[in-house]
Amino acid sequence: MTIEVQYSDRFDYLGRSVGRRLIDNVRDRRQKALDAFSGFRVQFTLDGKTLRELEFTTRPSESDLIRRAGPEAKIVSIRPCRRSDRKPVARPVMLTV
Questions:
Q1: Which residues contact 58 (CB under 8 A, 6 or more apart)?
Q2: How far is CA 93 from CA 57, 62, 90, in A?
Q3: What are phi and psi of 32, to 5 degrees?
Q4: How many angstroms separate the CA atoms of 35 and 31, rounded?
Q5: What is the torsional sign of CA 63, 65, 69, 72?
Q6: What is the CA radius of gyration of the chain?
Q7: Distance CA 76, CA 40 (A)
Q8: Each residue's pLDDT tens digit, 46-86
Q9: Burial label, 91 (beta-carbon count in 10 A; 0-12, 13-18, 19+)
């Protein structure tokens, strides 16, 4: 006597739980990546020769740019910056005697 078992996705608990875990892991990694952004960095020039830089914690609107850079400023770039883009903090040095 032979028994035939047909596979059905509807009853695949293990597959569904693994799928949920993978989706949760992706969601967690995406949230960590979004948390790593510290804001936006705007480069602008007033005279066409020297670059100046402003940092915003959120995406700047036109009125924010005009208020902080001035109405005569020409925007060169707006880019998201990560914490790793910041200047490194001086680390304490261990002295050996």
A1: 39, 40
A2: 31, 44, 9
A3: -65, -40
A4: 6
A5: negative
A6: 26
A7: 13
A8: 998 889 999 888 889 999 999 999 999 999 999 988 765 45
A9: exposed
